[in-house]
Amino acid sequence: MVTLALCQMRCDVGDIAGNARRMVAFARTARERHGADLIAFPELALTGYPPEDLLLRAEFVRRARGAAEDLAAACPDIDMLVGLPWAEAGALYNAVAWMHAGAISAVYRKQLLPNYGVFDEQRYFNAGGKSLVRTVGGTEIGVTICEDMWESGPVGAAAAAGARIVVNVNASPYHRDKERLRRQVAAARAAESGVAIAYVNMVGAQDELVFDGMSFVMDARGETMVRAAAFAEELTIARFDAAGRPEPGPGAAWPHGEGALYEALKIGLAEYVERNGFQTVVLGLSGGIDSALTLVLCRDALPHVTLRPVMMPSRYTQAMSVEDAHALAAALGLELGVIPIDALYDGFAAALAGLWEGPGRPVATENLQARIRGTLLMAIANAHRGLVAVTSNKSELAVGYTTLYGDMAGGYAPLKDVFKTDVYALARYRNSQGPVIPERILERPPSAELRLGQKDSDSLPAYDVLDAVLVRYIEQGWDADGLVAAGFDERLVAEVLRLVRAAEHKRKQAPIGTRVTPRAFGRDWRYPVTVTYEPPRM
Asked: Is the pTM of this model over 0.90?
């Protein structure tokens, strides 16, 4: 029998010494409390993931290796699988050090290097080409790294080399439905190779990426026998018989749908704010759905951070917006700051007299209001050494229905990768857990309130239609012909795609935000700003 500990841990990018200290503590707990023979840590656990161009600095890589050697010496009574960058003969590898009896006894080098979406590993790493299988507790165990599981070769090669269990260590970012995809792939590898799969994932967040944990152990039939927690650190113990068959173990409940999405948004926001040292978060509260959900998310994710919501009404702000903003702040136990902006707007307009008479004046008058608000929020955040949370959503950012240096001004955008229809779904989900968002905010037509009687539908298609087009175009790669063939109006499709292309310059200047879909406006969206290409129509 062999006892394996899956250490689903947060690994902070750059904190090599801190990550190593915590790994020592986990390893000692696994050995002394649970009798573990082997503990597996996530991919690049020593450095955090993704370290990006820190990997190009030789000193960074050397420090990781030195920390690995010290870590091995600190835990001589348990085998460990530790992810780290490994330099050898002028090449750099995404690797796992197998530590045994107080030393690094073998190194596995990742064979398949992803170079799509948010992944850019071929920029940094060379590919390995050999399996690593060792005997622990009388059972042969192989090791692979993340992408190695997504194709047949590496797991099959480990099985051919005698492995009965394959440990797959990961830094696999969350997006919606990712957990189902992982288990589907793992089941295919297990069935093909006749091995048990022990999948250990990172947890936490790094810039826009969220790591959800959800580690598991699967038997050779593809049945999940052990499930670790979602979005939380956990040391999960799995026991196997001599033939490598896993025993039934912990079976954590995993959130789905809006529940999982909300948890991902919370952890992404919390880790960004807390790890960057902000003690105050400022945001504009408009009485609309986006700012309402953002404020509730901030309160849920940041219980120890000071929140400063600010209402900045103008002559176009409806009374219900002011009432609902006050009601929401009160429901959360927060004081709402109120700064009317009409006098400020009139002062700007007087200063601009004669200089802003042009064809774009009507839009400029709307954008000026947003920019006044952005300036006020940044000034408050500066005074309190805080962060401005931006409330824009993915639908707005996709089509440019947002103002540079106005409602885009700030440091982090929690809803950046959340379409408008999902904003409503998340708000209803959150209210089902304890109502805080006034029902009227959920029911009233959305409006920027930058002119009299304005509604979003004056400028955009209904959000359920708009989002249906955007999801297919942005995340699924459909073209205009496919959208029209699916029943969308041809003129609507042409206009939406035109708006998406025209807004690229805004997206390039937008703050980062939590990635929760397969393709967000961030690391995995790299379109040129200046471009003359127009997709042809068949």
From this structure: yes
442-460 residues labelled b (16+ CB within 10 A) or e (exposed): eebebbbbbbeebebeeeb
**Helix, strand, coil fractions of the chain, as percent rounded to 5:** 40, 20, 40
Question: What residues are annotated to the active site?
Answer: 43, 110, 146
Q: Is the domain covering 2-245 a CATH 3.60.110.10 domain?
A: yes
- What are the structure tokens assigned to 265, written together? 């948004």
* β-sheet with 2-8: strand ranges across: 103-109, 91-100, 79-88, 38-40, 2-8, 234-240
The token pair that represents 231 in the structure block: 């979005």
List pLDDT tens digits, range 247-300.
998 888 899 999 999 999 999 999 999 999 999 999 999 999 999 999 999 999
Contact 96, 41 (CB under 8 A): no
Domain extent listing, the chain? 2-245, 260-508
Which candidate, 229, 389, 366, 419, places its Cα nearest to that of 296?
A: 389
CATH class of 260-508: alpha beta
Say whether 353 sits in a helix, a strand or coil. Answer: coil
Whether the CB-CB separation of 2 and 247 falls below 8 Å is answered with no
Could you give the 3-state DSSP secondary structure of residue 463? helix
The single-letter code of the amino acid at 122 is Q
∠463-464-465 over CA atoms, to 5°?
90
Beta bridge partners of 387: 281
